[in-house]
Write a structure and sequence with these properties.
8-stranded mixed β-sheet; alpha+beta; 8 strands; C-type_lectin-like/link_sf; 4 helices; disulfide bond; Mannose-Binding Protein A, Chain A; C-type_lectin-like
Length: 202
């Protein structure tokens, strides 16, 4: 039911006009509604994290390089303890994105935290420099399949021939993704996987 309500909220927002990712139509009110209806009390997230399906997401304001942001997410995950007889946390990384609804949810999380759409690290990267731009293989730092992408117009492009192996969100007029040097410093979104602890009858 929560997923259906979330989809209805997104649909309502899209019918208001041309909707660019994270554009002017994503308001703080819509963002709060999205995260509220995505939450599932049976599978709670730690305080400060927002739930979407079986993962929890958190905006981290401190600007870091991509590698340091990834390590910070991992450290946050290592500090979490399971909720007694309810849920386990299975490790944190920079956020991966697997569908349009997840990308909108991440933008809602960022908007709630900042009041805007700042450039923000997510977990996408490529490890090997290819000679042909279109042949680059992208990965997610959490090891999940790279099965969805929302590049801004003209991206990814290794701008001016520079190697740009890491992904930031909220770029350009569409607030899409951009490939950029991993050494630049931005805020980030972490995600953590959750697992319900099955209840047994003795």
């Amino acid at each position: 039911m929560a997923t259906l309500t979330l989809l209805l909220l997104l649909s309502a927002a899209f019918t208001l006009g041309d909707f660019a990712l994270g554009g002017d139509l994503m308001t703080e009110s819509i963002a709060h509604d999205l995260v509220k209806f995505a939450a599932d009390r049976r599978n709670p997230c730690p305080r400060g994290w927002f739930q979407f399906n079986s993962r929890c997401f958190m905006f981290v304001k401190t600007a870091r390089t991509w590698p340091k942001a990834e390590r910070h997410c991992q450290l946050l995950g290592e500090k979490l303890t399971p909720v007694h007889n309810t849920v386990k946390y299975l490790g944190a990384n920079l956020a991966s994105v697997h569908n349009y609804e997840e990308s909108q949810f991440l933008q809602a999380v960022v908007l709630i935290a900042t009041g805007s759409f700042p450039l923000t690290w997510i977990g996408g990267f490529y490890a090997v420099q290819e000679k042909v731009e279109k042949d680059r293989l992208w990965f997610w730092s959490d090891g999940s399949k790279f099965d969805h992408e929302i590049w801004a117009e003209g991206e990814p492009n290794n701008n001016n021939g520079a190697r740009e192996p890491c992904i930031q969100m909220n770029f350009g007029a569409e607030n899409g993704w951009n490939d950029v040097s991993c050494g630049k410093r931005y805020s980030s979104v972490c995600s953590i996987r959750t697992c319900l602890i099955p209840h047994t009858i003795n």
